[in-house]
Amino acid sequence: MGKDSAQRFDRQRFNLRILIESEVREQYQIEITHRFAALENVNDDEDVNMTWENIKEYIQTSAKESLGLHELKQNKTWFDVECLGFLDQRKRAKMQWMQNPSQSNVDILSNVRREVSRHFWDKMRAYLRAKFEELETNNKIQNIRDLYRGNNDFKKGYQPRCNTMSWLSIS
What we know:
By secondary structure, the protein is mostly helical.
């Protein structure tokens, strides 16, 4: 797991789609203006990193208050709290290996990775088995609508979304 993927979990996604509405856009502009008014009193002697952190926090707070957070669609319904625990276990083993790259830590990391991978595959297989049984049931009881919906989910698979913001102009 690289640095970019680790940062992806920490980012907040704001509901930018509601910026189309003029009232929301004006409210967001007012929030940002008020927050940046506090930055006018910044000394030149302050640390650049600290100033940047303040600016970033002001923008995130304004966006959270004005726009709200965007709820992500759950693509993997089989992924649950137990899976998160396995990911944490893998992360701890990797951090331990990075701090002390001894052979025993390499072995521990390999075993944890294998265990996590096996768990994820088992979860996914159980989920797919349940989906196939649901499709069979819909076929047997002649529930054509749900049968085709379920079939299309398998046929289409994962399709990445393309989010463009060319329509967005804040002035």
